[in-house]
């Protein structure tokens, strides 16, 4: 009885895993075959529905060396923007979170409530005015528009404050007695102790920026400065039926974050779990 | 005595240093908050009472006209209906599946860690890529979905080309992509429940099903509240998948509120009108979240 139940459970687990993974595997394997083949084996139960008959990397060549759609350029743009935003988010929001968690100052609660109230404001409401601000600052079609408005993470302040609060107050006391400045205590004691939380927030920010679609679609017109998500979406609508090429482009844009995630998943999952409990 | 005074002076000086440091530490984040959240929020409120077009760059105050017009605008109302349809299906289905998955892999057995990673992978796949791949899988003639349906001798479907079913295609993709995220939150919630409670229930002869309804579910109330509220907000704000998967079609049947706002603002350049629609969206999201919070608190 117990064993049958376990078998049922494992069968369910495997089936669900197949549903989760099939589109991803199909994408990767499909990118490695000539496109006629994708349609040829598209019906009936057939191992070649998934496994290529004719392995080829030519789709990748066509995508990478595409003159009108320089995919490496898009990936480079996205890497640059996402990395810059991530570093800025970590510095700016760790500083604010530290002040809220460990420093005494007048009006602290009020300012904190102001920050937290921003969590209820959906970005969609401020979309038009933020676009107008970009227009006014002459930042349309520039990396500033992609980077600077993304440098605030209210959620990040919330997450890091929880984490900093667990660092014993004696640290600040010790800094006071030593006559050490607070910025130095922050740099040399608090930040090193918070590395796991910083990795969590960093990873979430990076992936979030890698995935951003609507904002770059609005503020970037210049093809050479475009982000990967917008580029890939428009590529897929212009390429029409050349599925293999579309799948190759999708795979190129997915593999970097998939690998990053697999290496750092512990932190990412921890961060999500933490936000759920404390929220 | 002298050293005590000196100490007091020292701590005063330190407190001043603390205050000053705190201000400098908060300043960058605070400036960003003002410039990119509060200022645009106020500006949005003002623009929503204006006839504001970026092309002609003239603006005129029109009072409540935008809001009045919204409630007569069939396209806006149906975009609301589409967003709500998506939300009403996704909230219960996705929440149940994510809880089910969490229960399935909660107990540490060989391989559960690996399955957790597998279930989470769709979350990491970016929105555009997921939408592109699903579009191909849904394809009427060559898509994998219809092939599977044929193998099982089920009727085939062309989800995305039929206005009546296109939204269901979006829903399946939405759930596929988000379920792993909420599974992780449920896993954290489940791990917070003390095993002693189950032990005691077993001693009292409670069945597994009784344990689930009497212990697990009530103690997960806070987690469920979080999951449901976040799912609702995300569902009503749905847009990313729509852009790539259906582009609002066929026949506008998958046009959601945010998609419509985008269209108004950036394709038709009706900034004022679009912003008033965004404000209505904000009000709806806020009201629903408040009602949900109240509901879950009452049950606590």
Query: Which sequence of strands runs across the widest sheet of chain B?
Result: 1-2
**Overall body shape of chain A:** globular
Count up the domains of chain B: 2
Write down the Rg of chain B.
26 Å
Q: Segments of chain B where pLDDT lies below 50 for 5+ residues?
A: none
The number of helical elements of chain A comes to 14
- CATH fold-level assignment of the largest domain in chain A: MetI-like fold
- Report the portion of residues of chain B in β strands: under 5%
Largest interface: A-B, 94 and 93 residues
Sheet with the most strands, sense and barrel status of chain A: none
N-to-C terminal Cα separation of chain B, in Å? Answer: 55 Å
What low-confidence regions of chain A span 5 or more consecutive residues with pLDDT below 50? none
Share of helical residues of chain A: over 70%
Description:
The complex is a heterodimer of chains A (about 280) and B (about 300). Chain A folds into two domains: about 55 residues, no CATH class; about 210 residues, MetI-like (MetI-like fold, Orthogonal Bundle), CATH 1.10.3720. Chain A has about 280 residues and is mostly helical. Chain A has 14 helices and no strands. In chain A, α4 crosses α8 and α11 runs antiparallel to α14. Chain B is an all-alpha fold and about 300 residues long. Chain B folds into two domains: about 45 residues; about 230 residues, Orthogonal Bundle (MetI-like fold). The model of chain B has no long low-confidence stretch (mean pLDDT about 90). Classes of the chains: A mainly alpha (about 280), B mainly alpha (about 300). At the A-B interface, α1, α4, α5, α6 and α10 of A face α1, α3, α4, α5 and α6 of B.
Features:
heterodimer; A: about 280 residues; mainly alpha; MetI-like fold; globular; B: about 300 residues; 2 strands
């Amino acid at each position: 009885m117990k064993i049958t139940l376990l078998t049922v459970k494992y069968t369910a687990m495997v089936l669900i895993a197949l549903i989760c993974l099939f589109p991803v595997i199909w994408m990767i394997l499909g990118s490695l075959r000539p496109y006629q083949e994708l349609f040829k084996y598209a019906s009936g139960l057939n191992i070649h529905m998934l496994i290529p008959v004719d392995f080829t990397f030519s789709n990748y060549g066509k995508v990478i060396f595409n003159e009108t759609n320089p995919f490496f350029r898009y990936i480079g743009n996205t890497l640059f923007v996402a990395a810059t935003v991530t570093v800025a988010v970590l510095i700016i929001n760790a500083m604010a979170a530290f002040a809220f968690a460990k420093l005494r100052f007048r009006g602290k609660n009020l300012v904190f409530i102001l920050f937290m109230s921003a969590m209820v404001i959906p970005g969609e409401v401020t979309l038009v005015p933020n676009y107008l601000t970009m227009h006014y600052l002459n930042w349309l079609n520039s990396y500033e528009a992609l980077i600077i408005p993304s440098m605030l993470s209210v959620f990040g302040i919330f997450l890091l404050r929880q984490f900093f609060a667990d660092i014993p107050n004696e640290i600040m006391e010790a800094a006071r007695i030593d006559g050490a400045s607070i910025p130095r205590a922050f740099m040399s004691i608090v930040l090193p102790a918070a590395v796991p939380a910083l990795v969590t927030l960093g990873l979430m920010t990076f992936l979030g920026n890698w995935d951003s679609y609507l904002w770059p679609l609005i503020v970037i017109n210049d093809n050479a400065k475009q982000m990967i998500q917008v580029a890939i979406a428009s590529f897929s609508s212009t390429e029409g039926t050349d599925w293999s090429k579309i799948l190759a482009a999708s795979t190129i844009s997915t593999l970097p974050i998939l690998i990053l995630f697999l290496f750092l998943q512990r932190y990412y999952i921890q961060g999500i779990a933490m936000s759920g409990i404390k929220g | 005595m002298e050293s005590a005074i000196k100490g007091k002076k020292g701590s005063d000086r330190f407190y001043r240093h603390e205050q000053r440091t705190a201000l400098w530490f908060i300043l960058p984040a605070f400036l960003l908050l003002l410039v990119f959240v509060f200022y645009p929020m106020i500006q949005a409120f003002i623009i929503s009472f204006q006839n504001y077009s970026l092309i002609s760059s003239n603006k005129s105050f029109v009072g409540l006209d935008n809001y009045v017009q919204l409630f007569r605008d069939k396209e806006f109302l149906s975009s609301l209906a589409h967003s709500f349809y998506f939300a009403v299906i996704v909230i219960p289905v996705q929440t149940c599946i994510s809880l089910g998955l969490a229960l399935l892999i909660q107990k540490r057995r060989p391989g559960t860690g690996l399955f957790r990673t597998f279930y989470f992978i769709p979350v990491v796949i970016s929105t555009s890529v997921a939408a592109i791949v699903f579009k191909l899988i849904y394809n009427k003639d060559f898509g994998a979905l219809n092939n599977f349906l044929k193998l099982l001798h089920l009727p085939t479907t062309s989800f995305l080309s039929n206005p009546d079913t296109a939204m269901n295609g979006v829903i399946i993709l939405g759930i596929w992509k988000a379920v792993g995220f909420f599974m992780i939150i449920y896993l954290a919630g489940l791990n917070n429940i003390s095993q002693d409670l189950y032990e005691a229930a077993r001693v009292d002869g409670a069945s597994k099903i009784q344990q689930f309804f009497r212990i697990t579910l009530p103690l997960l109330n806070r987690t469920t509240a979080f999951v449901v509220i976040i799912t609702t907000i995300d569902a009503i704000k749905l847009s990313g998948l729509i852009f790539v998967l259906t582009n609002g079609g066929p026949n506008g049947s998958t046009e959601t509120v945010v998609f419509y706002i985008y269209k108004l603002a950036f394709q038709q350049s009706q900034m004022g009108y679009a912003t008033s629609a965004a404000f209505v969206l904000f009000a709806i999201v806020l009201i629903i979240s408040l009602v949900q919070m109240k509901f879950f608190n009452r049950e606590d």
